[in-house]
Write a structure and sequence with these properties.
By secondary structure, the protein is mainly alpha-helical. The chain is built from 2 helices and no strands.
Length: 219
């Protein structure tokens, strides 16, 4: 074999060597990029897990708050039921008492009218008895007014309780809306985490393939 042939072979081998070195350099750069991407994916996955845990804690806190609001609502509904029952009983009692008092009052007035007819024909002592009877009538009328005032006060109390219940219902609805929004955020974070994990797995698979390919080229 001549010197020229040897030089040609060496030149060709040198060119192939440079080509292989360039390919290996490119492959190293690609591997570095893949490792960097895998590291970024891992960091994103860790951050997503932290965010998901935080959202889960917030969701549990909101659920606890909602449970407390629901318990408070039930307690208020129970108290309202008791107050409504008491109000109904008091109203019924007041109405019965008022009717009885009015009936007694009317009967007493009739008695007093009859007695007054007799008193007018009697002495001054009978006039004093008549004045005493009039005071009794006034006392009964005053008691009737007091009964009506008590009934009005109880009606006002029932109205205030209904307003409070409306306020509590509104607060519970707002808490339920907040809990629903946090649940949606948690599900979105969970979905992002799953997607990040999937991309990380794909990156690891590609990296493993590159490593195997690199190992095969070395041998």
């Amino acid at each position: 074999m001549s010197v020229n042939d040897m030089n040609a072979i060496n030149s060709k081998a040198g060119a192939e060597k440079r080509t292989l070195e360039s390919a290996i350099h490119t492959m190293h750069a690609e591997i570095d990029d893949m490792l960097h991407g895998a590291k970024n994916s891992e960091e994103k996955a860790k951050k997503a897990m932290v965010d998901a845990a935080r959202l889960a804690d917030e969701l549990r806190a909101e659920q606890d708050h909602t449970d407390q609001q629901v318990k408070g609502k039930r307690a208020m509904e129970s108290q309202l039921g008791e107050m409504e029952q008491r109000l109904a009983e008091a109203s019924d009692s007041a109405m019965r008492g008022g009717r009885n008092a009015m009936a007694k009052l009317e009967g007493r007035i009739r008695e007093l009218e009859t007695e007054l007819g007799s008193i007018q024909s009697r002495t001054g002592d009978n006039l004093k008895s008549h004045q005493k009877a009039e005071r009794k009538v006034k006392e009964l009328a005053f008691q009737g007014d007091e009964d009506r005032k008590n009934q009005d006060r109880m009606s006002e109390l029932a109205t205030k309780l209904q307003q409070k219940i409306k306020t509590y219902k509104k607060q519970i609805e707002e808490a339920e809306e907040i809990a629903a929004l946090n649940l949606a955020k948690f599900r979105k974070a969970q979905q992002d985490l799953e997607e990040t994990e999937e991309r990380a797995k794909m990156a690891e698979g590609q990296l493993s393939g590159i490593r195997q390919s690199r190992g095969g080229s070395v041998y």
